[in-house]
Amino acid sequence: MTRQINHFINGKHVDGTSGRTGDVFNPNTGEVQAKVALASADEVRNAVAAAQNAFTEWSAVNPQRRARVLFEFKHLVEKDMDHLAELLSNEHGKVLADSKGDVQRGLEVIEFACGVPHLMKGEYTEGAGPGIDVYSMRQPLGVVAGITPFNFPAMIPMWMFGVAIACGNTFICKPSEKDPSVPMRLAELMLDAGAPAGVLNVVNGDKEAVDAILTDPRIHAVSFVGSSAIAEYIYSTGTAHGKRVQAMGGAKNHAIVMPDADMDRVVDDLIGAGYGSAGERCMALPVAVPVGQEVGDELVSRLKPRVESLTVGVSTDPDANYGPLVTKEHMAKVKGFVDQGVKEGAELVVDGRDFQLQGYENGNFMGGCLFDKVTPDMESYKEEIFGPVVQIVRAESFDEAMALPSNHQYGNGVAIYTQDGDAAREFASRVNVGMVGVNVPIPVPLAYHTFGGWKRSAFGGINQHGPEGVRFFTKIKTVTSRWPTGVRSGSDFVIPTMK
Fold first, then answer.
1. How far is CA 496 from CA 134, 290, 483, 493, in A?
2. Domain limits, the chain
3. Beta bridge partners of 22
4. Is-catalytic flag, 282?
């Protein structure tokens, strides 16, 4: 019997009432394993009402007690790690070790959010004027929402709701309909950890649910991760309806390989960061830019046998380097980009398009692909492929190499491989990209820093998690206070100054 996935509203599983459902596939077999309810606007409004009712109680809980709930939530997630990883792998296709990493990176933001008693502190100035003190306080916004992608169904929801809930907000999560089970389980665990009903709600759905979130005046902020086209829509629609919006989009991350780079490290990192999770990461490393002809030749000759020997397997195979892509539609899109690259004249050094896994011929499996002699004018280079495909774009100089990520429409992440500290420092300072790795392939900042790209990789001026996350999910109130003594001297019609 096909499993039914509904909604989690006000601390309870709630049946869908819209009459619409979506298929949840097992990417290993291609079979439908569940049906997910697709919410109507009315169902979203019910979730918002539950969150709004919960906000009064939750925002009045002091930060230390909110932190205790998050500490317990972290403990419960760790106890449930194997189950969560299995749910994630069965719906997304990641190998189990990668799924556990997905959960763990989310938990690191939960750990950061447990410091909310310190993070919420304001500022105080005694004696700012004669008998006047000025102080500020951070306060929660109210009901906020997150619209999360299929590729990190544990990490990104926790990035969003961990900080938001710690700050005293209540949260509506609209996960990807492709793999909704993990966010549902996280909501259950948050309730078990002691959060009141309605603090964390999960509404499954498609564009109808998204539009209901973006237009509901009771929702004060929306956080989003997904493609750039949708990110731009989320940002423009949400802000037009008076909301604070952070919308993270696509990426085309480059690895600059200098002549003095440690080539063993470069090859290892490109294999892991380019093909891990079947390339379905916004911080994957799908473009390598060797500087100089000899560097390019060596890089291609060393990558080719490594790509050909990648182990592609079912998500439960402990020996697999990566598993299937999330859906057949997405696999067809990735293969279409490979077809396009060939037509554009790039050299396909390794072709994984015809890969099939014995016994799982209906699964969404694709072998690794490696392109050489890709040029910046090719459409397959301009767009995000989001699959197990690495492209080599050769450069003759440091400046030419740096110009490639700097001029690309996306500006999420970039890496440089070199043993020259001056070159690395100059690169980090000058490159027009939001997150930079120096001899680091996936420069995702730790939880107590902040995540966010530039250009079409991000819409909105405030990044995710870290201190920026606290800033996004709170508002500042500033109080100017005087307790006068003596006799009042009458009205003053001039604006007060410090002169």
1. 14, 61, 17, 9
2. 3-249+457-479, 254-438
3. 36
4. yes
Q: Are 250 and 453 in contact (CB under 8 A)?
A: no
Reported as type and span, the H/E element at residue 265 is: helix 263-275
The answer to whether the CB of 223 falls within 8 A of the CB of 472 is yes
Rounded (to 5) percent helix, strand, coil in the chain: 40, 20, 40
Residue 282, both tokens? 């916004």
- Which sign, positive or negative, has the C-alpha torsion 426, 433, 302, 344? negative
7's CB contacts (< 8 A; 6+ apart) are 13, 14, 15, 16, 37, 39, 43, 47, 201, 202, 203, 204
Structure tokens at 448: 């107590």
CB atoms within 10 A of CB 297: 13
In a 10 Å sphere around its CB, with 0-12 CB exposed, 13-18 middle and 19+ buried, how is residue 344 labelled?
middle
Query: Alpha-carbon dihedral of residues 465, 199, 281, 438, nearest 10 degrees?
Result: 10
Whether CATH 3.40.640.10 fits 3-249+457-479: no
Task: Calculate the alpha carbon distances from 441 to 50, 64, 67, 94 in Å.
Answer: 42, 37, 33, 19
Question: Does residue 150 have a pLDDT over 90?
Answer: yes
- The one-character DSSP state at 479 is E
For residue 174, the surrounding DSSP H or E stretch is strand 170-174
Does the pTM surpass 0.70? The reply is: yes
For 410-440, write each residue's pLDDT tens digit: 999 999 999 999 999 999 999 999 999 999 9
Enter the tokens of residue 241: 């309806």
Q: Is 60 exceeded by the pLDDT of residue 366?
A: yes
The side-by-side arrangement of strands in the sheet containing 200-202 is 12-14, 7-9, 200-202, 170-174, 143-147, 219-225, 244-248, 458-459
pLDDT in tens, 392-411: 999 999 999 999 999 999 99
Q: Which of 114, 167, 282, 369 is catalytic?
A: 282
Q: Which of 3.40.309.10, 3.40.50.2300, 3.40.50.720, 3.90.1720.10 would CATH assign to domain 254-438? A: 3.40.309.10
**Token pair 């890496």: residue:** 415
